[in-house]
């Protein structure tokens, strides 16, 4: 059964001088536990679609359902990881990680213990009492992951969460996030400009085109790659084949923009 369904989604932005169609007739569904990436040329509506899935933006056309309900009624089951970690600089890592639980009035002995255990699991043991400025970019993103996971969301919306990191840290964090999301059976939608990242982390890649933003093609990542970590996937022939196929499509889309 589908966990997310999007039917004929369209979105127009109205400005004083023009109407811009950011998305037109976008339909897809995502199963529970699936990892799906959205890629495409700049301006094809990826961020708009993520905002619609988050419930922050209501599409001008069509309908989205998450677990059978409109996204704005499902906000408590949606977690985010963004390019910036948005940790509060004046709070310790522990306080930052517990903040969502506190705001949701879910903070108790058990939820606190499991959030702190999660910090250990992702290699942040010993930094709980430190402030974000004392941590590297990769560690701060791991803390942001812990904060997101603490409230136990069913769906994670990932908006270029690795793009501000150096290459080595990015590859390590891709592996970590992938491993955690699979272990906890989360559903994830990732927006990225990095085709390698999209293929190596996903079950499916949704390629969008511009003018107007629309779903161009859907690519299934071969089954035998799904048991591997993103790092391992990158050295497989099937990965290179799929990379070349989608790359060609992307080049054609860029030329026809
Ligand atoms: N608030 C807004 N008002 C008017 N137009 C907007 C607004 N937000 C986005 N757009 C337009 O809608 C289209 C889709 O934008 P969107 O940011 O969703 O694309 P994107 O694929 O995420 O782009 P990028 O890859 O550059 O982040 C673009 O043409 C953009 O200029």
UniProtKB/TrEMBL annotation:
One Pfam family, short name: ABC_tran
Keyword vocabulary terms for this entry: ATP-binding, Nucleotide-binding, Transport
Stretches assigned to the ABC transporter domain: 4-235
UniProt key word Transport: yes
Coiled coil feature spans: none
Classification via Gene3D superfamilies: P-loop containing nucleotide triphosphate hydrolases
SMART domains given in the database record: AAA
Keyword rRNA processing set for record: no
Molecular function GO terms recorded: ATP binding
PANTHER family on file: ABC TRANSPORTER ATP-BINDING PROTEIN, TAURINE IMPORT ATP-BINDING PROTEIN-RELATED
Protein name (database record): ABC transporter ATP-binding protein YtlC
Species this chain originates from: Siminovitchia fordii
């Amino acid at each position: 059964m589908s966990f997310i369904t999007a039917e004929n989604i369209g979105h127009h932005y109205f400005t004083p001088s023009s109407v811009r169609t950011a998305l037109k007739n976008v339909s897809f569904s995502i199963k529970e536990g699936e990892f799906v990436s959205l890629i495409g040329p700049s301006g094809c509506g990826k961020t708009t679609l993520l905002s619609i899935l988050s419930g922050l933006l209501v599409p001008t056309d069509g309908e989205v359902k998450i677990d059978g309900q409109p996204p704005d009624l499902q906000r408590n089951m949606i977690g985010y990881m963004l390019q910036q970690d948005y940790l509060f600089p004046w709070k310790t890592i522990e306080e930052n990680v517990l903040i969502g639980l506190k705001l949701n009035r879910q903070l108790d002995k058990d939820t606190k213990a499991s959030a702190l255990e999660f910090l250990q699991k992702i290699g942040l043991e010993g930094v709980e009492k430190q402030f974000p400025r004392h941590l590297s970019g990769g560690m701060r993103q791991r803390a942001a992951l812990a904060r997101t996971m603490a409230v136990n969301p069913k769906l994670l919306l990932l908006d270029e969460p690795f793009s501000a990191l150096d290459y080595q840290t990015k590859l390590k964090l891709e592996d970590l996030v992938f491993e955690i999301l699979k272990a906890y059976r989360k559903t994830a939608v990732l927006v990225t400009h990095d085709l390698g990242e999209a293929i190596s982390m996903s079950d499916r890649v949704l390629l969008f085109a511009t003018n107007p933003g629309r779903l161009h093609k859907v690519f299934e990542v071969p089954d035998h790659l799904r048991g591997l970590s993103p790092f391992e996937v990158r050295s497989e022939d099937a990965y290179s084949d799929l990379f070349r196929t989608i790359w060609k499509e992307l080049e054609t889309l860029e030329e026809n923009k």
